[in-house]
Design a protein that fits this description.
The protein has about 1000 residues and is α+β, with helices and mostly antiparallel strands. The strands form 18 sheets. It has a seven-stranded mixed β-sheet with strand order 56-55-54-57-68-69-70. A five-stranded parallel β-sheet has the order 63-64-65-66-67. The chain has a four-stranded antiparallel β-sheet with strand order 2-3-4-6, with no helix packed on it. The N terminus is likely disordered.
């Protein structure tokens, strides 16, 4: 469904704001009668004389307008608009700027092209769940599909032949086809060589066809099979515009260029366009540490007992029992990861997952007696769900395969193959069916989609997937249902952050719309044997129609270690260009009180007189719980072992984030200081298991309640939150001092966002507006906007696996071999093998392009900070891969280190407190056997780590995992290279 409640302030007047003369990935249209070009820089439509000059703005920022196509009279331009949170085809009056919607609905309608007579518009739509070419007849306003509804190909870029009877388009990336409208005949015009793909197509006035062919980091403009653009050019993968029968205008390398057939050189068409001025982002006022003591809020995986008297949950790195209205009792507390409890139907025992044996497996805790292992599987066993008889347990392995364990025979049977992070299984009352949340892509072209319900017949293995309601999603695939009611007549799930009941037949078939059971903000549902529904609301346990309970548990900050003096042979303070030599660092209550020249009459507590001491590293962008269950208790020690003393997540399941933050703060778990966020806020579609769809202003208000009540350190507006809602989000969080980040640069910079996460992150368009789609090049507008605003940009060099070829030490390091789960280590080795192979050209080009953007922003005075996006990159070692790649491609070692220390501290609102060594700063520091200011690889040669003066030596961090059983041998899911940030839709 489209978003509701969207309003927008007026666009800035022409001439105000930031003037740009370049833009990335420009789509063009030309009107021959007026000799005017339309183009879409910054997701704004502009018109420009073919000779160039000052562009005139047609659409406001909130329209989010791209892909222009002139009507033949030159008075209107069709385009795709994201104003309402889905892509509609719209048109804009060239004189007045008035916008008319041509299509509406929950589907994405994109890539419009107006017919030669103006009576029809061809476009691509995913209505009905397929990517297909559609036709809108303006006379009756009725759209109809033309081609693609009966296959599984992604369609793109329809273009009209000048005779008005034929349409060409890209089908499945590998073919350019033409459709004859009268006969329905289809013909393949061009086939791409293996590994290459077609993009924007455009018919010329004489019937010649232009298109773009992408080959790795290269893209080339073709006319009728003949290359036009030069090898050094990178052409935007979007429709060019015909200026005449022999001349084309196209976007390339940030410019609008024109070129005639046979010409050796292009001619740039100069333009200037006035974007809105940078907005004022929220001033960061979030403390980087929790209070010395506070009420517990990090309640994870609450499971209501069959008699509804007790809740079992994870908190402070342990499993607890809470007697509702009574006391809380810790039942499993061994320092390992114990999670996701499920009650046996008799209420006497609880099945859960624990990695105390090295790999997470199923254990059973019998109340009053103790624990026993149930499985010993090399691929792990997670999120258990006990069936109504108590004889079977559904669970998932590390890759997302769902299986069933029969406790009476010990037989394990696969039920559903590995999937994209499905939700926890739930049994029907008769034990015949298992339901879980799965993701369903919107179409072959758009991998984002909806969190739907899969119901599996346990006896036959047959399964069905159904939406909880048309174009709506279960909130997340992380504890938000569906759960069967005991009478089998409904499923319970969280939708739009409210608990809902969904009527179903015995086999789980949905028979009616969902209805809310409570108006309270909801997460993590559970159901008792008598039908009581429990959920979490803003840190409290709630029974629908009953009471709210605050667990009587206090989170207390661990006591700081005794005062100490660390003697450093060389100290880098996080700011200076060089070292101070032979100094004593005095520490009290976790803070540095003084740094003085070493005195011979003082005996240091820690003698690092032959070592180098630097600030602890800060990773401003990772997702601790993206694969948190799979990494388990290894993750915190791994971050520390590689020198990360502060870790920030811009997106995680909210209560898992809270639990990790509280566990580390209290000393119940080992790890770096953890700053976090809940689920990123997305639009009506999402992709990752912990994204949260937002469909209206009313729902956004609920999301803000959660943000404020659970004290997020940052909020991420992901790929599909429209500009109007993003503005509302930033405005309301400004009063709270909570920063907001996203993948976008403009209009995010005008809205007032604090940071751009990634150099060119995933985009609802399917391509970036800051990096070119093939080689990852950056136009000057990106540098100007970032360097002239208060936005930071994080590094997240996901594609820098070339660094493993340059120096494989991190792969062979003992820290990696011990602390990586075996399946993650196997994937790491495969990544290294691919990096050394001939197919790594694209990753190398993207890494060069990434660092070029970062370096130019840095040199222009912008703020560059280190972030890894782990575990999409490798936990622990990726911070060093980022630093090494930056140095390889132009940063000095000291400037690279600043991105992970003093610069990063600014992005956390902790300048002077973190990322530096000075009096008054927190005692976060590393003792290194090397010289990182001369050789960046030495940054990884860490011997000891201090967080708030708490000392960890590397051997001690590895010790709990050194002598665990060797579980290797099974085949992991194959390593899949990351491409989500560049190419997709």
């Amino acid at each position: 469904m489209a978003l509701t409640g969207c309003t927008a302030p007026p666009a800035p007047e022409h001439g105000a704001g930031t003037i740009i003369g370049q833009a990335t990935n420009i789509a063009l249209s030309h009107h021959a009668g007026t000799r005017v070009l339309a183009f879409d820089a910054g997701n704004v439509l502009w018109v420009l004389p073919v000779a160039g000059g000052q562009a005139r703005r047609l659409t406001e920022d909130a329209e989010d307008a791209t892909w222009p196509s002139f009507f033949p009279d030159g008075k209107r331009i069709a385009f795709q608009s994201f104003r309402n949170g889905v892509y509609d085809i719209a048109s804009v009056d060239v004189v007045s700027g008035a916008v008319e919607r041509l299509t509406r609905g929950p589907q994405y309608d994109v890539d419009p092209c107006v017919s030669p007579d103006g009576s029809r518009v061809a476009y691509v739509s995913d209505a009905g769940g397929t990517s297909a070419v559609w036709l809108l007849d303006r006379a009756d306003g009725r759209p109809r599909p033309l081609v693609g509804t009966d296959d599984e190909r992604a369609y793109r870029a329809p273009t009209w032949h000048p005779d008005g009877q034929r349409i060409a388009y890209v089908a499945g990336d590998s073919a350019v086809e033409v459709l004859h409208l009268a006969t329905g005949d289809r013909k393949v015009l061009h086939t791409a060589p293996a590994g290459q793909s077609f993009r924007g197509t455009s018919y010329g006035p004489s019937g010649d066809l232009a298109y773009v062919l992408v080959d790795g980091p290269r893209s080339t403009l073709f006319r009728n099979g003949t290359a036009l653009s030069a090898a050094a050019e990178e052409v935007a993968p979007l429709p060019p515009a015909w200026l005449s029968g022999d001349e084309l205008a196209y976007g390339a390398d940030g410019e609008i260029r024109r070129r005639r057939t046979g010409d050796r050189d292009f001619v740039a068409i100069p333009f200037s366009a006035a974007l809105a001025a940078p907005g004022s982002p929220p001033e960061i006022r979030r403390p980087i540490a929790l209070p010395e003591q506070s009420a517990l809020r990090g309640i994870v995986g609450p499971a209501l007992s069959p008699d509804a008297s007790t809740v079992c949950f994870r908190a402070l790195n342990a499993l607890w029992l809470l007697r509702l209205g009574g006391a809380a009792e810790k039942i499993v507390d061994d320092g390992y990861s114990n999670a996701d409890p499920s009650w046996a139907p008799d209420g006497r025992s609880i099945v859960y997952s624990s990695d105390r044996g090295g790999v997470a497996n199923l254990w059973r805790h019998t109340i009053g007696e103790g624990c026993e292992p149930l499985t010993d599987l090399p691929d792990g066993a997670f999120v258990p769900s006990v069936d109504p008889s108590g004889d079977r347990i559904a669970f998932q392995d590390e890759a997302g395969t769902t299986s069933v364990l029969d406790l009476t025979t010990s037989e394990i049977r696969e039920l559903v193959p590995a999937g994209d992070y499905p939700g926890k299984p739930s049994w029907s009352p008769d034990g015949r069916y298992v339901a879980m949340t799965v993701t369903r892509p919107a179409s072959e072209r758009d991998t984002a989609g909806y969190n739907d319900i899969m119901v599996v017949d346990v006896e036959t293995g047959n399964s069905t997937i159904q939406s909880i309601a048309p174009h709506r999603s279960i909130a997340t695939r992380n504890g938000d249902g569906p759960l069967w009611s005991p009478d089998g007549k409904s499923l319970i799930a969280v939708v739009d952050s409210l608990v809902h009941r969904v009527p179903v037949d015995r086999d789980g078939t949905i028979t009616g719309p969902p209805t809310p059971l409570s108006e309270l903000v909801a997460d993590s549902v559970s159901v008792s044997a008598s039908g009581d529904v429990l959920f979490l609301s803003l840190g409290k346990v709630v029974i629908v129609g009953g009471k709210q309970y605050t667990p009587p548990i206090t989170c207390r900050q661990r006591k700081p270690p005794p005062s100490a003096t660390i003697r450093a042979g060389a100290l880098w303070d996080g700011h200076s260009d060089g070292y101070r030599e032979n100094v004593d660092i005095k520490i009290e209550n976790g803070f540095i009180t003084a740094i003085d020249h070493a005195r011979p009459d003082v005996t240091p507590t820690v003698d690092a007189s032959t070592k180098c001491v630097i600030p602890g590293l800060i990773d401003v962008h990772n997702h601790w719980h993206f694969r948190g269950r799979q990494w388990g208790s290894r993750q915190g020690p791994l971050w520390l072992a590689y020198g990360v003393t502060t870790s920030r997540s811009p997106g995680d399941p909210a209560y898992q984030m809270l639990e990790t933050r509280e566990s580390i703060h209290s000393g119940a778990a080992v790890g770096p200081r953890f700053l976090g966020s809940g689920e990123p806020l997305d639009g009506t579609r999402n992709s990752f298991a912990f994204m949260r769809t937002v469909s209206s202003e009313e729902q956004l208000a609920r999301e803000l309640q959660r943000v404020i009540a659970l004290d997020y350190n940052v909020v991420k507006s992901y790929q599909r939150l429209p500009v109007t809602l993003e503005r509302s989000l930033v405005k309301q969080l400004r009063a709270q001092g909570i920063p907001v980040v996203s993948h976008y640069l403009y209009p995010a910079v005008a809205t007032g966002l604090n940071g751009m996460e990634h150099t060119g992150g995933g985009n609802r368009l399917g391509y970036s507006r800051t990096l070119s789609a093939a080689g990852g090049r950056t136009a000057e507008d990106t540098i100007r906007l970032l360097s002239s605003s208060d936005m930071w940009v994080s590094s997240t060099l996901l594609f820098a696996n070339e660094m493993f070829v340059d120096s494989p030490d991190l792969v062979e390091d003992r820290r990696t071999k011990v602390l990586f789960p075996w399946w993650e280590y196997e994937r790491l080795k495969e990544k290294v093998r691919q990096a050394a192979g001939p197919g790594n050209e694209l990753n190398r080009a993207w890494t060069r392009g990434d660092v070029d953007l970062l370096l130019r922003v840095h040199r222009a005075g912008g703020l560059v900070v280190a972030g890894t996006d782990a575990p999409l990159d490798d936990i622990g070692i990726s911070i060093h891969q980022n630093l090494r790649a930056m140095v390889k491609h132009g940063f000095s070692a000291v400037d690279a280190l600043r991105t992970a220390t003093s610069n990063a501290a600014v992005a956390l609102g902790a300048e002077g407190e973190l990322g530096c060594l000075r009096a008054g700063a927190r005692a976060d520091l590393l003792i290194i056997d090397g010289d990182p200011l001369r050789e960046i690889r030495d940054t990884a040669r860490i011997e000891r780590v201090f967080v708030d003066a708490q000392e960890y030596d590397v051997a001690g961090l590895l010790a709990p995992f050194e002598n665990l059983p060797d579980c290797r041998g099974a085949r992991p899911q194959p390593y899949a290279p990351q491409t989500c940030c560049r190419r997709g839709n």
